[in-house]
Design a protein that fits this description.
mainly alpha; 11 helices
Length: 276
């Protein structure tokens, strides 16, 4: 066998090993969480409120599930549309200029800001300056700021990945840029844009640092009122584990959170295939 063939086989084996290692790590995490917290995860755990003294040693996580979903909903409502509009501007309308470079650089820098710093900004601006207090609105807006650059980057890259020949044909035929965008470019990129938004939802659902100082509390009904604090799965897990309230319930909450994120990712893949 020729040396070049051996090199190809080695590289292929490395690629397979890299992919399989990720799968093994993920299965290892789920397996360990199932081993430690699987016995806790039940319908009663999902549909009941935490109880006992200290709070959380018994009962379930229903208010934390509701609070997490409300936080993600507010974050997506506030970040998705501005993020997609910014991506459309960068990919389709902005000419090469210092202004475009500055916006791209700003988005990249925002994406690299640690989530705890975003949380501190949310506390200073939404909680203290605007007077929202520790509330669903303050936490949701803070999460919206956190996922905004992720939505912009994924949507921008999705638009730029559309074959350039569509734009060239449109220009040749004299079709307006807006018509090409709405009827051709956006439908071509829709699956990747929606997938990016759903991944951003998963990112927001699992974030702890931004909501610790803006929205989450140890106990709340999580009714959905915008100016009231909420419980959230990541913060509830953090409290259960760090305060040693119930390690078993902490692992059960962690397993539930991982399964929720996996569900979002499966929906993302399904939508991507369905919209192609």
């Amino acid at each position: 066998m020729k040396p070049r063939r051996w090199i190809d086989i080695i590289w292929l084996a490395l690629f397979w090993a890299a992919g399989l290692s990720m799968l093994v790590i993920l299965l290892g995490i789920i397996g360990y969480l199932t081993y430690r917290g699987g016995s806790v995860l039940s319908l009663e755990f999902i549909t009941s409120s935490p109880s006992g003294m200290p709070l959380g040693v018994e009962g379930g996580v229903l208010p934390a599930i509701r609070g997490t979903l409300y936080l993600v909903l507010v974050a997506i409502i506030t970040a998705a549309l501005p993020g997609v509009i910014t991506a459309v501007y960068l990919a389709e309308y902005a000419e090469e200029s210092k202004f475009k470079t500055m916006i791209n650089l700003t988005v990249q820098c925002m994406a690299g800001v640690p989530s705890v710093v975003t949380g501190l900004f949310g506390y200073a601006f939404f909680v203290m300056c605007l007077g929202f207090g520790i509330s669903l609105l303050a936490g949701g807006l803070t999460l919206g700021i956190m996922i905004f650059p992720q939505i912009v980057v994924t949507a921008r890259d999705a638009l730029l990945s559309v074959d350039e020949k569509y734009r060239l044909v449109g220009e040749t035929l004299g079709v307006s840029r807006w018509y090409m965008l709405v009827r051709v470019i956006l439908p071509q990129a829709a699956s990747a844009i929606v997938g990016g938004i759903l991944l951003a939802m998963g990112y927001a659902a699992g974030a702890t640092a931004p909501i610790m100082v803006t929205a989450a509390v140890i106990s709340a009904n999580s009714s959905g009122a915008l100016l009231e604090p909420v419980m959230a799965l990541p913060y509830h897990l953090y409290i259960l584990f760090t305060q040693q309230i119930s390690i078993e319930n902490a692992y059960g909450t962690a397993l539930l959170l991982v399964l929720l994120l996996l569900f979002i990712n499966v929906i993302t893949l399904w939508l991507r295939r369905g919209l192609r």
